[in-house]
Structure formats: structure tokens, C-alpha cells
Amino acid sequence: MAENEELRTVPEEGEEEIERPDSSLSALSAQLQQDLIFEGLPTVEEEEAGDPKLFRLAQVEIVLQPTSYQRNSEKEEEVLRYVERFRRQFYQLYPTRRELPLCPLNECGVKKFICTSIKPTQLPYKELYSAEGCAKFVSDHITYEPLFNPLQTPEYVPSPTFVLENQVGDCFDVSMVLVSLLIGVGYDAYCVFGYASKRITQKDETMWTLTTLPDEDQEEEKQGETEVTANPYKQLRKAPLESKFEQLQKERAIQEKEEERKRNEEAKARAEEAEDERVTDEYYGKRVHCWVYVRAGKREVQDSFFVEPSTGSIYPVSALNDGSGGDVKNPLYHRIEAVWNNRDYWVNMQVCLQLLLTRSFISNAFEGRWTFAFGN
Questions:
Q1: How many CB atoms lie within 10 A of CB 168?
Q2: Distance in angstroms (rounded) separating the CA atoms of residues 22 and 17
């Protein structure tokens, strides 16, 4: 008999059978799953459901993670108890409100107050000292992944470190990274939880106006022309007797007409898309999304603006109704439920049946029309 084969004896008469633990792999894995401290980790069934985020989280080696990721300190436990009381009181008063992402699970399956997962960081690169630079870095280096369920907030929101290591994340993950960088360089930045259009949540850039790169053949022809004109033996031609001012006015008029034509075409395309999206998208106005809000005041920011972390696009709040950030009939962002940073969590209490992301709507933030968790 092999040494590793388990011995099984037949009980004699009058002798009770001794229960031996089942050494099969399935029973062992089930026992380990029951004994795991971190019960929040995704199971194999959840991995096989098709959510790529759960698959990445299942590959995490908990032992190698920092201790603060594996368990909560006494202060963090006290914060969680306080937030839980806030959540219960809020839903007793407003039972019809959507469940807020207050304490999601991190990559170790541990509940963390979402504000504590924002880590203000200033990296030693001058390109990341501006909001545009931070937005471009995040959109270029982190692959955006739409929410697996577009109608629900994610159960897991890993740390910015985990997102940067994997270079992939959904709107909540990417927003947390971007806000950490913006706060680290002095901006008054917040994560925004609300609802957005399908083309924003799915990162559909087919309607965006892109600048085309110059053709290589045209560049070579231009270089050849400059080489020919540089010939010192070539006879120079007299310049035509034309007014430079009149020529400049003609060019400016042509350019203005071309820009007006493009604006009209884009406005028409947006209007057609808005009508189609309202009719064809069964989840219109219900798609959960998270983006970034930078408030005016710090870093000489004159006008507050939104940042779409998936594309790095910046939309000034004052320009939301001029078509560049989506008009009232065709908004990019629909409604706001809550905002948070590394200090506090605010819940929107304003009546917003339609999206009115105007300056007056945003200016009411933190001024009596928002309820907060801590009041910092």
C-alpha cells in the first residue's frame, strides 16, 4: 500500500466507528473557506460569473499585502460603526434612496470607509502637477473597464495602489486614483457618484471631434519643397502685390465659416444621438457612474470643472449648457447622489428630477442642501 494512501479500518462488533475527516480536495477547500478570516473575498462561483474585476481580486495574495489592508485598526473600526449608524438613520428617513457606496470591500475583502481609501499623493514629476497632466496620466496608463452591472455600485473598491499595479479599473477605481493625485498636488477634488449617459459609461468616443495627425507623405513633400527653395542658384520670383491685411481677413472669414459649419454638424449629431439614446437605451438615466469634481478656490482655479477619468476630458461647470459638456437635452452626466474626498462624505439632498448640472446646482454643495457624515 502506498505511504500517502489513507488507512481505513473496519470496526469490529461492539466498537463504535471513529469519524475521520474527509481528506478530499473539495472538503479541504470548503473547510479552508470556512476558516478564512477574510470572508469577503470572491468565491469561485463569482469568478466564473464573468466579472473580470472579481477574477483579478481572486488572484490577490493576502499575506503579501500591507497589514493595514488586511485588517482595520481600532480607529477604523470606530469610524465604520459611526458610518453604519449614519447609514441606518439616513435610510430610515429616506428609504427610497439608492444604496450609497459608503463601506465597500477592498482587495483583501475587508470593509473600508471609502474616504479612507483616498491617499493624497504627490509624485516627483512636473507633468503631474496640473489637473490636465494628472487626468491625461490616469486615462493613458489605466485601462478603463465598464461596470459589470451598469445599474449597481461595485461591491469591491480596491486601493489606488492595487489599481495602479494592475493598470485596469472601473469608474470608481480610476476616480479614486485621480482624486488621490489631484488632492496630493493641492486641488480641492472630490469623487462624484451619480448617473451618466451610455457613451460616458461605455467610453464611446465615436462622436468626439479628434485632431488628425499630419500625413507622413505630406510632411516629406513639404521637406522637399523647403530643400528646393533653399537652392541659392534658383531665380527668385517677385512677391505678388497683395494686401496682407485683406488676405488675413479672407482667411479668418473662411476659418470662421468652417468652425461654424463644424459646430452646427456636431450640434445636429448630438441632438440626433440624444433622441436615439433616450429611445434605444433602456437604462437611460439609470447607469451608475463615478467621475471627478474639482472645486474652484485652490490652485488658482477660477471655475469649477468636472474631469472624466476614463478619457481625461475636462468640462467646466460654466460651459455645461453650451454644448461642449452636453446640453440639457443631451447631458453627459444625469444626476448626482453623493460626493466624497479624503475628509468627509456628502449626500445630495436637492430635488433633481432632471439633470441640471448648472453652476447654481454645484454652488449649493456643502451649503445646507447636502447632508454630511462627519461635518469636516
A1: 15
A2: 14
Separation of alpha carbons 261 and 108, rounded Å: 54
Phi, psi dihedral angles at 286 (to 5 degrees): -120, -5
Angle between helices 171-184 and 131-141 (to 10 degrees): 150
Q: Which residue has the cell 448648472?
A: 358
DSSP string, 127-147: GGSSHHHHHHHHHHHSEE---
Distance CA 204, CA 200 (A): 6
Q: Give the whole-number percent of the chain exceeding pLDDT 70.
A: 67
Cβ neighbours of residue 27 under 8 Å, at least 6 residues apart?
Answer: 21
Read off the C-alpha cell for 42. Answer: 470572491
**pLDDT higher than threshold 50 for residue 299:** yes
What is the C-alpha to C-alpha distance for residues 278 and 354, in angstroms, rounded to an integer?
Answer: 13
Q: Round the CA-based radius of gyration of the chain to a whole number and report it.
A: 29
C-alpha cell at 98: 439608492
Return the closest-CA partner of residue 355 out of 335, 327, 326: 335
Q: pLDDT tens across 53-86, in order?
A: 999 999 999 999 999 999 999 999 999 999 999 9
Q: What pTM does this model have?
A: 0.70
Within 10 Å of residue 107's Cβ, how many Cβ atoms? Answer: 25
Grid cell locating 225: 519643397
Q: Any idea what the Cα angle at residue 178 is, between residues 164 and 270, rounded to 5°? A: 115
82-128: per-residue pLDDT in tens? Answer: 999 999 999 998 898 889 999 999 999 999 999 999 999 999 999 99
Beta-bridge mates of residue 292: 191, 307
pLDDT of residue 194: 92
Residue pair 207/295 in contact by the 8 Å Cβ criterion = no
Averaged pLDDT, 171-192: 96
Q: Measured between alpha carbons, how far is 290 from 179 in angstroms, rounded to an integer?
A: 11
User: Which one, of 59, 84, 60, 83, lies nearest residue 70 by Cα?
Assistant: 60
